[in-house]
């Protein structure tokens, strides 16, 4: 069973160019950006996008987007 899992994971990684978990994180960040633009609180955004906490969301968001979720939300409001 593990061999099948790893084979599928490698196939996905080859097709996407990065591991499946990284793809999932990027999809979560895209969804978080939409929710932040809708003016939802950061804690609610973190929970709705599958992050364990606001800080977990913030760490990934800053790493992938280059600014914090709070800064992004402020940019969306102006």
Automatic annotation (TrEMBL):
Q: Name one GO molecular function term.
A: DNA-binding transcription factor activity
Q: What's a Pfam family this protein contains?
A: HTH_18
User: Boundaries of each HTH araC/xylS-type domain copy?
Assistant: 1-75
Q: SMART domains, alphabetically?
A: HTH_ARAC
Instruction: List the keywords (alphabetical).
Output: DNA-binding, Transcription, Transcription regulation
Taxonomically, the superkingdom here is Bacteria
Q: Which Gene3D superfamilies match?
A: Homeodomain-like
Entry protein name: HTH araC/xylS-type domain-containing protein
């Amino acid at each position: 069973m593990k061999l099948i899992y790893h084979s599928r994971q490698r196939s996905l990684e080859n097709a996407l160019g990065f591991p499946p978990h990284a793809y999932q994180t990027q999809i979560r960040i895209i969804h978080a950006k939409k929710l932040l633009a809708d003016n939802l609180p950061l804690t609610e955004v973190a929970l709705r996008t599958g992050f364990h906490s606001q800080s977990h969301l913030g760490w990934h968001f800053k790493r992938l987007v280059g600014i914090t979720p709070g800064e992004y939300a402020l940019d969306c409001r102006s």
